[in-house]
Amino acid sequence: MNDMISLGFSATLVRHKRLLIRNHDGKSVTLPASAALCLAALVEAQGEVLSPEQLMDIGWRQVGFAATENSVRVMISKLRRALVSLDLDQQIHLLAVTRSGYRLIVHTSDPEDLPPCPAPLDAHQPEVQPFRWQRALSMTLGGIVAGIATGLVAQHLWLLTPKKIDFVTWHGGAVSVESRVWVPKHQQTHHELIEATLLTYTRYVLGPDRPAARELYITLGIASSHHHQGLIACHQPLQEANNGCESYYFRVN
C-alpha cells in the first residue's frame, strides 16, 4: 500500500501520519483517522462516486467502529475545511452527488501551465470614494452574513452530535449460521434483506479454513437495498477492545 498519495500537483496525503500537505510550501493539516482513510479511497477511486455506505465501511467499520450517514457528512465537512485552510479548494473539489454519494475531482494541470496572474493595478491610481448607498448595502450584507454564520454554527453543532446505534439480536430466517446476529433496532423487521446479507456472507466469505465469526452485525443502509449489503464480523462484541472485527461491503447485481 502506497503511503504517499498524490492529489495532482497541489497536495500529498501521507497515510500513516494522516497529514494533508500543500506541495509548494509544505504547509500541512492533520486529518482525523476516518477522514484520512476516506480521502485516500476517494483519490484512488479516480473521480468515481463512493456511496455513504462504502465510506462508512472504509472510514469506520473496517477498524471496528459503528457509523451513520451523519458520521459521513461530518467527515466530509472536515475534509472541506482542511482544503480551505490550505487554500486548495480551487484545485481539489469534494462534490456531493445527489442520492449516490461523494466524488473527488483533482485538477492535474501543472502550475507552470496555468495562465499568469493579472498585473497589479497602478499604485498611483486615485482612490474612488464609495457612495452612501454602497455603505448601506455593506451594512445590510454584513447583517445577512452574520445571520448565515449563526445558522452555520448551529448546523455544525447539530452535525457533531453523535447518533447512537442500538443493535438488537435477531433470530429466525432460513439462513443458518453459528453466530449471534445483531441488527439495528429500527430495522429488525427487514428479514428478507438480513437473510440475503447473511447468505452472501456465508457463500462468499466462509470456507473450510474460515469459520463464521462469533458476532455478526448487519449494517443496513437507509435505502435498505438488496444491491448494497453490509456486515461487520467480530470475534468479540463490538464494544470490547481487541474485538478482531472485519467489515464487509457487498454490492450485488
Describe the structure.
With 253 residues, this protein is α+β, with helices and mostly antiparallel strands. Helices cover 31% and strands 21% of the residues. Strands 7-8-9-10-11 form a five-stranded mixed beta sheet, sandwiched between helices. A four-stranded antiparallel beta sheet has the order 1-2-3-4, covered by helices on one side. The chain is elongated. Keywords: DNA-binding.
Rg for CA atoms: 24 Å
Shape: elongated
Share of residues in strands: 15-25%
Strand tally is 11
| Low-pLDDT residue intervals, each spanning 5 or more residues | 111-137, 156-163
Number of helices: 5
Q: Total domains, how many?
A: 2
**Sheet bearing the most strands, described?**
5 strands, mixed
The CATH class assignment of the largest domain is: Mainly Alpha
Kindly identify the CATH topology of the largest domain: Arc Repressor Mutant, subunit A
CATH architecture of the largest domain: Orthogonal Bundle
Distance between the termini: 28 Å
The secondary-structure element order is EEEEHHHEEHEEHEEE
Give the overall pLDDT as a whole number. Answer: 76
Q: Largest beta sheet: what is the strand line-up?
A: 7-8-9-10-11
Determine the fraction of residues in helical runs and give it as a percent range.
25-40%
Question: Which class best fits the helix and strand makeup?
Answer: alpha+beta
Spell out the CATH superfamily of the largest domain.
Winged helix-like DNA-binding domain superfamily/Winged helix DNA-binding domain
Domain OmpR/PhoB-type: 2-106
InterPro entries: OmpR/PhoB-type_DNA-bd, Sig_transdc_resp-reg_C-effctor, WH-like_DNA-bd_sf
Keywords: DNA-binding
DNA-binding region: 2-106
